[in-house]
Every structure is written in structure tokens, then in C-alpha cells.
Design a protein that fits this description.
Layout lengths: L1 H10 L10 H5 L7 H10 L3 E2 L11 H12 L12 H15 L5 H4 E4 L1 H13 L5 E6 L3 H9 L3 E6 L14 H5 L6 E7 L11 H11 L6 E5 L25 E6 H4 L8 E4 L2 H14 L5 H14 L9 H22 L5 E3 L6 E5 L40 H13 L1 E2 L1 E2 L20 E5 L4 H11 L2
Parallel strand pairs: 1-11, 3-4, 3-5, 5-6, 6-7
Antiparallel strand pairs: 2-8, 7-8, 9-10, 10-13, 12-13
Helix pairs in contact: 4-13, 5-13, 7-8, 7-12, 14-16
Length: about 450
């Protein structure tokens, strides 16, 4: 039932657009999320650079740890908030990062992935009518989980990069205007999905200045890509700032870290009172989490601090692997036959491309649902999107179809990560200006990407 509900929340038309004419509103309803991108990739035999999961296998030492756990009898119910062995290892590891002693029994809740961590946090915090501030572009579950618990979403768009820049920036003066007595939480993500933006100290300082004026506001800090950082950048967690620490719920994904996303093992670190609320939420929703996977991840965390594949530890190995993937994917995209601007990501799983200059080159047929039967549809529109007659797809959606059908490469149109009911945006800040590519692909997939895009 919950899966059906979340799907309907994603797919239903925003309330503010339901009274508009179908021609004006339908074009903004056509969105593609990860699973749908995979379906298109399968339909057209395209390589899938859309959905953000690693297509390489889980490291052998992690797989071996799971076998060991199941053979050791770790197969029955366990503690609701996480196996004691795993939470103790998490506390040990992150106490060094936080520069304080984390209480494993009171401050850590192990969850069924970071998605449930979000749901637990909202359940613990949100009352009907509370407001949650979310940056655009956003990961869909930041929105759907909050709405499930009765929150009103206040969207705040990053300022998009210029055509010669890679920087997604924040207008903090405008951001502060969204805060009021009903604001309960703000969602951060660093490195950010989908933009690849990494938060810096100066941004945290400005945000803390705002939060100090609103002492009841919590921060949901999504840090699932914490080990994937590029070009010398460092991961900063807001929970290390003493003046705001007790109002931060840090969300992590061990599935992302160890390339075992199907195991669904995440966790939160938060103050004991909030953690108790999240434990209660978990108790009455999923009850507990995968016990053998929890014990396996505990062993993997211990092993990961040992030398691995000629690196001092596994964490440096996975960071270097993503740096290499980022460098190669960005190079291929820069050489592709499109007049786009490839944004070099600062961290995370994804790279984005600004397609504003190549919208005019998209074949006309891909702006319509029946694109396989449009007469003379192979010709490019050779005009701006606003001049296209009665389009049924936004430009990024049309570009996604063009790339998938004709180049056999699948990406994600980034209007899917926006509040598309808001069509009154400044010139140059439209929701359809970008597409997203996943970096977390094995070498064979990247070689195939080069073959299909670099002629």
C-alpha cells in the first residue's frame, strides 16, 4: 500500500495546475524517474546512465561478510533500532568524524536504507500543516515522505549555473524569507542529488545564522554520497557545528558506500529525543531491518579500514574509483555531438548537462507522445521551445527520448526533480534546462558510452 501511495504522490498532478488548460499543464506532468528510465533503456536496448545504482558487483569482502553472518545464525529478529554490533561500529567510526563520543544506543537508528531514514525523521517531527523547505532540484522522496505525514513543501531553487559555470549557488537572503513560525525542517544533501554540489563552510555559516533565528527548525542532512568527492573537496557535516548539532538529523547509506544498495542498510545520527521518535516510527512501520546484512556491514566497516586494492583503506579506494569514473564520463560527454555545457560535478553519483543551446537541434517528433508516428518528425525544431506548436513534452524530456531512441543512451530529464507546478520562473531558470547522467557504472558501460556518443 505504501509503495502505491508513494507512486501516486509522485505521479499525480500538482493541485495548483489541475484547473489549467490541458495544453498548458500536461506538458509539465510528463516526468521520468529512475525506474521509468530503466524501462525505456530496456525497451530501446540503451545503456542505462539514468538510474543511480552501481552496475558493478558488491566487493567480495562484503559478500563474504554476509555469508559469514548467515552461517553464524544471524537470521532472526533483532533490535528495532539496529543490531548492537553494527551501531557500536557506526558510533566508533563517526565519533572520530564528529569529534565527540556518539551514544550508540540513544543516537543511532539503523534503517531500511536512507529512504526509510527520511520517513522516520518526518514521522518523528511533522504535524499536519508544518512546513518543510526543500532545495530544487531535489530527490523525490524528500517530498513524498514529507507529504505523507502532512507537511507543506516550500521549494527553494538553486540559482542555476551560467552557460560558462559549474556552480549551483544559494541566495541566502531569499532563502530566509521562506522561514516562518510553521517551518519545521529544511532538507540538505551534500554531495547533492542530482546536481553534484558539495556544501562548503561559508554556506553552512550563513545557514546557521538563519537557523539561530528559528530555534524550532530541524535540519535533515542527507549525506549518502559522503565518500564520493572530487578535485580535493572535503565532506563537511553540519552536525559537527556545536551551535546547531542537536537540531541536525544526519542520514547515511551503507548500501551506497559498499555498493550493495539492494541490501537496504542506512542509518541516522541525531539527538536522543528525536532518535527515540524515529525508533518508535520504525517499530510500527517495518519493525526492524535486515539482521544478517547488518552484521555483515559491521564486519565490512572493520575490514574497510584495512589496506585495500593498493589503497590505505576501502574508503580511499571507492573515492578514487568515483574520481576516475567522473573524469571519464565528463570527458565523453564533452566530446559528444551536442552543443551542451557539461557541468563538472563536485561530488556524488551524477553529472549534469545544460542543454539550453541544443534544444533547437532536437527532432520535432520527440516533443509529442506519439513520437514514432509524427509526420516529418525527424527534422530539428530549429527554434526556441516557446515557439514549438502545442508540445506535449518539455525539452529535457524530448532530449531524453532522442538520446535513448537514436543514440541508445539513457539519462534522466531534470524537470523530474522540480516542482513543475511553478511555471513562473525567471528567464534562464526553467526546470527543463538540464539532464542527468549517473557516474556509478562499470568500465564496460563507460566504454560503450564512448562508442555511442563519441564518433
Amino acid at each position: 500500500i505504501l509503495i502505491i501511495f508513494f507512486f501516486l504522490m509522485i505521479r499525480r498532478p500538482p493541485r495548483s495546475t489541475q484547473s489549467r488548460s490541458s495544453a498548458a499543464s500536461d506538458v509539465y506532468k510528463r516526468q521520468v524517474h529512475g525506474e521509468e528510465a530503466t524501462q525505456y533503456a530496456n525497451q530501446y536496448q540503451a545503456i542505462n546512465f539514468g538510474q543511480g545504482f552501481p552496475d558493478w558487483d558488491t566487493p567480495q569482502f562484503v559478500q563474504d561478510a554476509l555469508t559469514k553472518a548467515t552461517n553464524a545464525g544471524e537470521n532472526q529478529y533483532g533490535r528495532v533500532a539496529g543490531h548492537p554490533l553494527l551501531i557500536q561500529e557506526i558510533a566508533k567510526f563517526y565519533s572520530k568524524i564528529y569529534d565527540r563520543q556518539i551514544d550508540p544506543m540513544k543516537e543511532i537508528v539503523v534503517t531500511n536504507g536512507a529512504t526509510q531514514a527520511l520517513a522516520n525523521a518526518y514521522c518523528a517531527l511533522i504535524n499536519e500543516g508544518d512546513e518543510v523547505i526543500v532545495f530544487e532540484p531535489f530527490f523525490a522522496f524528500w517530498i513524498t515522505s514529507a507529504k505523507f505525514y502532512g507537511a507543506k513543501i516550500r521549494y527553494f531553487p538553486f540559482t542555476q549555473p551560467s552557460e560558462s559555470s559549474n556552480t549551483w549557488s544559494i541566495d541566502f537572503e531569499a532563502l530566509e524569507k521562506l522561514f516562518n513560525e510553521r517551518t519545521k525542517a529544511i532538507v540538505l544533501c551534500t554531495p547533492q542529488n542530482p546536481t553534484g554540489k558539495v556544501a562548503i563552510h561559508e554556506e553552512y555559516q550563513k545557514l546557521i545564522q538563519i537557523l539561530q533565528k528559528y530555534p524550532k527548525v530541524f535540519v535533515l542532512s542527507d549525506e549518502v554520497y559522503e565518500f564520493m568527492l572530487f578535485d580535493g573537496r572535503k565532506h563537511l557535516t553540519l552536525a559537527t557545528y556545536p551551535e546547531i548539532r542537536d537540531r541536525v538529523i544526519s542520514i547515511h547509506s551503507l548500501g551506497k558506500t559498499f555498493s550493495c544498495t539492494g541490501w537496504r542498510v542506512g542509518f541516522t545520527i541525531a539527538n536522543p529525543t528525536v532518535s527515540a521518535g524515529m525508533m518508535a516510527s520504525q517499530n510500527w512501520n517495518t519493525f526492524l531491518i535486515n539482521r544478517p546484512a547488518s552484521v555483515a556491514i559491521k564486519d565490512a566497516m572493520i575490514q574497510a579500514e584495512q589496506p585495500y586494492e593498493n589503497f590505505p583503506n576501502y574508503y580511499e579506494f571507492i573515492g578514487d574509483l568515483f574520481i576516475k569514473r567522473k573524469n571519464e564520463v565528463v570527458e565523453i560527454l564533452q566530446k559528444a555531438p551536442f552543443n551542451w555545457h557539461v557541468l563538472v560535478p563536485e561530488g556524488g553519483f551524477f553529472a549534469c548537462c545544460d542543454i539550453r543551446k541544443c534544444i533547437k537541434d532536437i527532432p520535432r517528433k520527440y516533443f509529442y507522445r506519439d513520437y514514432e508516428h509524427i509526420q516529418d518528425g525527424d527534422q530539428p525544431i530549429s527554434c526556441s521551445f516557446k515557439e514549438v506548436q502545442n508540445p506535449e513534452h518539455l525539452p529535457d524530456y524530448a532530449f531524453f527520448l532522442w538520446l535513448t531512441v537514436e543514440y541508445k543512451v539513457t539519462c534522466i530529464p531534470m524537470n523530474s526533480f522540480h516542482d513543475t507546478s511553478n511555471t513562473d520562473r525567471p528567464e534562464g531558470q526553467e526546470v527543463y534546462n538540464f539532464v542527468r547522467f549517473a557516474l556509478c557504472k562499470r568500465q564496460e558501460s563507460i566504454d560503450l558510452l564512448r562508442q555511442r556518443l563519441v564518433k
